[in-house]
Amino acid sequence: MNSTELEGIIRTILTEKLASETGKVSNSEAPKSIAIFDDVDSAIKAANDAYRRYHELPLKCRSAIIATLRAELEADIPYLAEEAVKETGMGNVGHKILKNKLALEKTPGIEDLKTTALTGDDGMVLFEYSPFGVIGSITPSTNPTETIINNSISMLAAGNAIYFSPHPGAKNLSIWLIKRIENLIYKTCGVHNLVVTVATPSFENTQLMMQHPDIAVLAITGGPAIVTMGLKSGKKTIGAGAGNPPCLVDETAEITKAAQDIVSGASLDNNIPCIAEKAVVVVNQVADELITQMVDYGALLIRSSEDVKALKAACIIDGGINKKLIGKSTTTILEAAGLPVPLKEPKLIIVETAKDDPLVVHEQLMPVLPIVRAKDFEEALAISLKVENGLHHTAVMHSQNVSRLNKVAQLMQTSIFVKNGPSYAGIGFGAEGFNTFTIATPTGEGTTSARTFCRLRRCTLTNGFSIR
Ligand code: NAD
């Protein structure tokens, strides 16, 4: 018997045991619709019923669900990556495989819900994390399946049910994945509809969901318009909004490593991750060396003023970003600009710009990285703060000067600050720390995990229980 067969047997035994322990779940109670509903109201009602049943199950049921998702979804990852690129027209299959694997393996489960206790002469107080109910989770087109996997693990570990509002531009694959996750949950714990959505995800349906009385909390992963809409809804909103991560390089940095890290971070999935480096601000003294090393590591430098003009004409429209090129490959962007395409596809296109260039001040979400020179560290810091623009998202810095690193981290006030690494180190890729694809920026929860999606409750016992 191999390990997969053994796992299957253990899961079946566990499911039957959980069902018999609670006496509340059985196949005969299957609802009429499962996972995908015709209308928002029916979907949320079904999720609310599922939440009530889930709340009565033991914690080990939540762990079993997460173990099942980790074990079973792994084989689907290449499909998810290929279909996401096909449906959204954005990103890179190989990188999407890595991102989905990261979400599946490094999103924390119920171990994230740490109970704390205070005890003393007057008794004991417990602080525990409890679920909210049904969470309305709005997911982006840029990390469609990564966000559904990541939020499913976090929110289910916290004991919630989830109504997903996938981006209409990724709806077919999102619906496929939600159905798949629902089925795996049901097989593990016998409860249907812990994750649901509608057959026609649309902006209108997202707005209906935001107003629904049975949605306890909104978790919005997307651009500024939708996060603002959530904040105006009157509901508690965990807002994971846009970023524009600057990458500051000073004259003390290890330039070869900095160059390699920047090319790797800014080219990930064609630069669509919100955490990816969006502009480099480099102290003049090391700028030439940094650019040379970036080119050595596979970046293409657009140099002549004519070529720079052509590149910008393709990438920028009316002072904003050309949405048609978001998430496209370097080859597609060079072709759109009418520039020659090298035989070996460049990892990244780099171009020197002024500090107020549209490519610098806007979140471009494409593998075209502007580089701005600064006369010294202080000027580089001032420019970097303007690039981040108070979004509280992500900033990266390459330096060996600890007090400067400390100063920038303090002034930036970003949810993620990466020192001497690629931006994706900040979401646990090749680095310490757990993963998330929902980084709550304007609302301040930062890198979300199960405990973010909980109420913190206090439970007091008087005249006991202190055994010190
Ligand atoms: P988007 O804002 O276009 O869409 C996000 C979600 O909002 C989708 O589900 C979409 O259907 C919905 N939406 C957008 N406008 C709406 C409207 N008017 N009415 C109802 N629903 C609406 O974002 P996107 O292009 O899919 O994703 C890219 C953006 O998201 C970038 O700005 C990126 O920085 C940000 N993002 C942030 C995080 C984070 O964790 N902070 C993660 C991923 C993406």
From TrEMBL:
Presence of keyword Oxidoreductase: yes
Source organism: Vibrio ziniensis
Zinc recorded as keyword: no
InterPro entries for the chain: Acetald_propionald_DH-rel (IPR012408), Ald_DH/histidinol_DH (IPR016161), Ald_DH_C (IPR016163), Ald_DH_N (IPR016162), Aldehyde_DH_dom (IPR015590)
Keywords assigned by UniProt, alphabetized: NAD, Oxidoreductase
Protein name listed in UniProt: Aldehyde dehydrogenase EutE
Domain Aldehyde dehydrogenase: 38-422
NCBIfam families: PRK15398.1 (NF011927)
GO molecular function: acetaldehyde dehydrogenase (acetylating) activity
Highest taxon of the lineage: Bacteria
PANTHER family attached to this UniProt entry: ALDEHYDE DEHYDROGENASE-RELATED
